[in-house]
Amino acid sequence: MWLPIPEDEFDVGELMNEPLVAVLPMGHRLADKPTVASKDLSSEPLVLLSRALAPDSFHQIEELFVRAGAVMNVAHELENLMSMINFVAMGTGCGVVPDHTRAIRRKGVVYRPLRAPNLIRRLAIIKKKGHGDLAELFYRFTIENLARLRGFGQ
């Protein structure tokens, strides 16, 4: 679950933090820059995840633009990251996606880190407070084992 969520109802175990990155069409005026600011994307046609499917994410990106004094020009709201990347590759706009999306190699796009202030997405496991032993075991198992994996190779 991507945070934030109402912590008064749920036990929340943060698993990882992930910054957002810009995905740009190859040949775009920003594609050769090492980093991109949200202000650089002002008025650019944007390809984003649907606000109906991910209202919190959409709102956080919207706030990022507002804080930077940038104009958010949403051209397309799509249902998944792969569709977003394909639309960007076709040159219909630029996207703002989670960093793990860089693993999706697609001809015609480049990924660039967003300069500060950036939005850091927090991924967590949640469980309803006061619910069952099995839920508690899975919750603890996930937190402990992911922490062990994150420590691997450091």
What's the helix and strand layout?
Layout: E1 10-25, E2 45-49, H1 55-68, E3 73-78, H2 81-89, E4 94-98, E5 109-113, E6 120-128, H3 133-151
Parallel strand pairs: 2-3, 2-4
Antiparallel strand pairs: 1-4, 1-5, 1-6
Return the domain count: 1
Distance between the termini: 25 Å
- The average pLDDT is 87
Q: Tell me which CATH architecture applies here.
A: 3-Layer(aba) Sandwich
Q: Outline, from the CA principal axes?
A: elongated
Tell me the number of strands: 6
Q: List low-confidence stretches.
A: none
Q: What's the CATH first level?
A: Alpha Beta
CATH topology-level fold name: D-Maltodextrin-Binding Protein, domain 2
Query: SS-based structural class?
Result: alpha/beta
**How many helices does DSSP assign?**
3
Please estimate the helix content: 25-40%
- Report on the biggest sheet: 6 strands, mixed
Instruction: Note the beta-strand portion.
Output: 25-35%
Describe the structure in your own words:
With 154 residues, this protein is α/β, with parallel strands linked by helices. It has a single domain, classed as D-Maltodextrin-Binding Protein, domain 2. It is built from 3 helices and 6 strands; from the N terminus they run ββαβαβββα. Strands 1, 2, 3, 4, 5 and 6 form a 6-stranded mixed sheet that branches. Strand 2, helix 1 and strand 3 form a beta-alpha-beta unit.
